[in-house]
Amino acid sequence: MATNIGMMDSAYFVGRNEILAWVNARLQLNLSRVEEAASGAIQCQMMDMTYPGVVPMHKVNFDAKTEYDFIQNYKVLQEVFNKLKIDKHIEVNKLVKGRPLDNLEFLQWLKRYCDSVNGGLMNENYNPMERRTKGGNGRNNIKVSQKNSKSLQSNNSGSCDADSRVHGRTISTKQGKSGSVTSGANSSMEIQALTSEVSDLKLSVDQLENERDFYFAKLRDIEVLCQAPELDDVPRWRSRRYCMLLTRKSLHSLKLKKSCHNLSMMNFLLMTEIAKVKNSIIH
User: Calponin-homology (CH) domain spans which residues (predicted)?
Assistant: First the structure.
């Protein structure tokens, strides 16, 4: 019987879709995301299916909405683990946050454990929908499968109920349409704002790249001039003074970039200053 399962066990390589299919088939649900199991009620019912009568279903809240209600369900589950002597610590603080990875890993462990108990076979005598009615609030807001919902609707009769359902659907349809239009307008505005922000960021990146290339080119010019053969016969102190003057003149010319809009004019001024310094030293 699998209780302590290492992280490299094959159980943790079971995909999300397979886990959801396993839960939906066993409990006749229609879950589409593993985060929907964050309340802990599904895990409690899985243990109830594996060990019928062990889980106090009247304490399980299938209508849990808050983290406090989630914690109460996990307390029930931990009590069941302790009663069955299952050495498994439930990381409640992580699970109640509804993070997909944490809930997926716990469901992967639960599937491995349940399969080790019943050999992967379903309990044909177990009625999950009936057991959910034993829940603490007496309600069941977990998504049931479409097949079961259709069968329940077919059993309901009466013209009054039918009229009320039609009227309710008409109102909900109108509200859904108006809500979708509003949400669509908000989404389009958000998309436009994000697109404008991306364009501004791209423009800033292009400007920074141009400025980077400009400074690099000027530094490269300084490096080339410092390696000129004319400096071989110049005393070291004059060569050092030459580099200092050249760097100072280059920095002075670089400051012109803020006020000079013509790049070619700025390059001309900089090269002129460099040539003046070079000639003054050589002669």
Answer: 13-115
d(Cα 67, Cα 64) in Å, to the nearest integer?
A: 8
| 100 and 211 inside one domain | no
| CA end-to-end distance (rounded Å), the chain | 94
* Distance (Å, whole) CA 145 – CA 149: 6
Q: Are residues 236 and 202 in the same domain?
A: yes
* Token reading at 176: 């859904």
Domain span including residue 98: 10-155
Please count the structural domains in the chain. Answer: 2
For CA atoms 177, 179, 181, 183, the dihedral sign is negative
**Cα dist from 9 to 17, 124, 142, 191, whole Å:** 18, 29, 30, 43
26 and 106 in a single domain? The answer is yes
- Residue 59 placed within a domain: yes
Question: Does residue 174 sit in the same domain as residue 126?
Answer: no
Claim to verify: residue 142 and residue 188 sit in the same structural domain? no
* Same domain, residue pair 37 and 74: yes
